[in-house]
């Protein structure tokens, strides 16, 4: 209950941030651009189902996969460290809130803020799809929005987790930036290197199971898997990427939800553990 | 029953000792002035009471509850004005008070509270546009939410003009009359002498004195404030000031142009005048004031406090 009170206040505060408004506008531009691109690309496919999938992916998933982590980390990294630096945390904790209520409230409040940003970006993307493509499945659109908000929650949790573990926003920002670099750049390169070292090849017809698992466990891959699971058709999942029939459990589309949950739980757990013990 | 009970508390930050075996008791229903120069450990003490930080050693209890395990109940019954009020710039004054009311599950009227601290007209304005004094008033309004049993005010007069400071004291008295215990810190004695039942003086992490204002005054050697006007500023004024400051019984020396203001014990007066003349200047005029409480406080907390023999 106390966490909800904190979340509501935090949402009201953070939603007014100018940076957030800027990022949301950028996100909307990406989805509209994606819709325009989709109308061109999907013409290349004959299959209607493949068309509709590629349209949604280009319009919604690709912009969201790229920008939602960035928006969520920017929204999250200052959540606690920023209040510690400014001193307003003493006001917040002077009121009867447990430290864990503060942390959970921050994750909820800022996820709400990211959800609004996603909602705005996706609504404009939807209008783009109507304009450039002509039709779109509303069910798919809603499923997309829900899973993307979950994806946003994971990155908010990572940002707020860093924010709870350090007393400086600079360090929290460095932590958040490292996560982006790790999952968007380093992870893939390390995977390729491991593959060529262990298997002695870089181009594979049917990659080994460990590589499928390795490539499925990042939040970004888990987002793709989860989308594939809710759309219940061949989305951009590991299985479809390699055209194989059986994949390890971890690389199953539905397991994406489990991976997302783990990625949300780890930073929240570490943040709680640290924040609960530390001197303000 | 005591409202705050601190016993044998030591707080260490790395190698720095912020509090050194502090014992302090605030009785239920009293107004306790917590005095000390900046850096003496006042905020550290308050942070311990609120469980913002944990003691290295010792025990802190509020309402006879453990500050660690019962922090939530303690904070539910306590109103806090943290040092250097920092607000949420993007939220309005009313939203701040509403948040405090919701957090404490209280049923106060936010506008009434804002009215009471004198910023009702700025209720719908974002706190980012508040002056320091308005921010301080807003923090006070949030501290008053839910009629707390204990009010902890850390340097409450920061940013307030004399009128605001007077209104703050009025509210402190009203709250005390309602039954609340007040614990407030300041580095300026003038702010506490008018309202406090008791004062504790903290220096270098120790409580060096604790008494009523009258009791403190009685325990002090008679203090005098000398105003000495010289014919000119001595050539070596820095060393002259230092020489006067080092006289036994002198607690402070302030130059004001050609005039020196010296707070000292009566017995040191002649020595001071003689020492001034050692520097080749002559005294044109001098007058003595009764000691102010400010001098008393300076005497307690300045470096020469030891020689003044006021340590408990």
Automatic annotation (TrEMBL), chain A:
Q: Does the keyword Transmembrane helix apply?
A: yes
Give the GO cellular component terms, alphabetically.
plasma membrane
State the Gene Ontology terms under molecular function. Answer: ABC-type transporter activity
* UniProt keyword terms in alphabetical order: Membrane, Transmembrane, Transmembrane helix
Pfam families tied to this protein: ABC2_membrane_2 (PF12679)
Q: Where are the transmembrane segments?
A: 20-40, 60-80, 107-135, 141-162, 174-198, 254-273
The record's PANTHER family line, in alphabetical order, gives: ABC TRANSPORTER PERMEASE, ABC TRANSPORTER PERMEASE PROTEIN NOSY-RELATED
The protein in question is named: ABC-2 type transporter
User: In the record, what lineage is assigned to the organism producing the protein?
Assistant: Archaea, Methanobacteriati, Methanobacteriota, Stenosarchaea group, Halobacteria
From TrEMBL, chain B:
Keywords associated with the record: ATP-binding, Nucleotide-binding, Transport
Q: Which CDD domains match?
A: ABC_DR_subfamily_A
Q: Where are the transmembrane segments?
A: none
Q: What residues does the ABC transporter domain cover?
A: 4-229
Q: Which GO terms describe its molecular function?
A: ATP binding; ATP hydrolysis activity
Keyword Transferase among UniProt keywords: no
Does the entry feature the keyword Aminoacyl-tRNA synthetase, yes or no?
no
Recorded family membership: Belongs to the ABC transporter superfamily.
- The molecule here is called ABC transporter-related protein
Lineage start: Archaea, Methanobacteriati, Methanobacteriota, Stenosarchaea group, Halobacteria
